Amino acid sequence: MTTTVAAEAPPLRVERLTLAQGLARAADGDRPFAALSYGAGSDSSWVSGVAARVLLDKEPVVDLWHAGTPVQSGTTGVVRWRTDGHWLLGVVDLDEDAFGEDLTALSRRAYRNLFEAMKLAGCPHLLRIWNYLPRINADGGGMERYRQFNAGRQQAFLEAGQAAFEGAPAACALGVHEGALCVRFLAGRIPPVPVENPRQVSAYHYPADYGPRSPTFSRAALAALGGGQVALFISGTASIVGHKSVHAGDVQAQLAETLVNLRSVIEAANQRTSARFSLERSDPVVYVRHPADAPGIRAQLVQALGARSRFIRHAVFLEADICRSDLLVEIEAHATEAGELTD
């Protein structure tokens, strides 16, 4: 079966620039549909930021999303969103103290409102989600905060009739040192094709050792963007084989395992589309637990992928805690190539 975007849907396009370049372009009149910045926030209505420190003396970067016009913006509960009627990009920033709820209740609230916004916009299919929560590995009162987050997230998926297991969207969940619970999401009218990594147990099938509710995401997702283009969204990927973390305390070995996992999930994705994706031609975000590890991580990536690869040229390195306390590095990425979905 070949999946295509309806003829009337405007193509969705993404490009990565420095934040300064993106803001300058918008000031000249070329304002995008919406944007996600890494390493700096913005008080602009069309840019939402990730409050994590950029490493290696690099500039903050921004992913500019271009879609159709006119663009409408609004608020549904705690969700702020922008849509052209075919694509929807929304953001949530929830201060835990302001709501007086634990993280389970707060994440459930965020996702419940997220699904309400999708329904109102007529964009019922999640393509990609970015989650950032403060103190992700800390105790939340008898349960790790990441596990609390997973419990509330999965409950909201189930209540909304969304795919919480097979068919879940691509996603990441990282820890920031302070600030609000942040959720950013991209949705559309056409369902994505979920992709799993044959080297790993699907996250939604993790055993109860990892908490009462499993994480709700697929390892990657393919999405038809229109205009003959297919996107690959790779979820946050780390040094996990099966369902177990491997190479504890060894950041070089963890990074090498992460690269094997990234190539494995890309190979699985390429079996479900005529587009040809490669790690070297992707736009990554590299999350590093200990900033002192960042120079070595970059050097290892350069050796593995080439200094002139798109991956290295477009990579942004952020200080962040990984969802498991024994993991030291995590990489997410996206790429767009010409082709069609074949499954």
UniProtKB/TrEMBL annotation:
SUPFAM superfamilies: YjgF-like. It comes from the Bacteria. Residues 63-187 form the Chorismatase FkbO/Hyg5-like N-terminal domain. This is Chorismatase FkbO/Hyg5-like N-terminal domain-containing protein. It comes from Variovorax robiniae. The lineage of its organism: Bacteria, Pseudomonadati, Pseudomonadota, Betaproteobacteria, Burkholderiales.
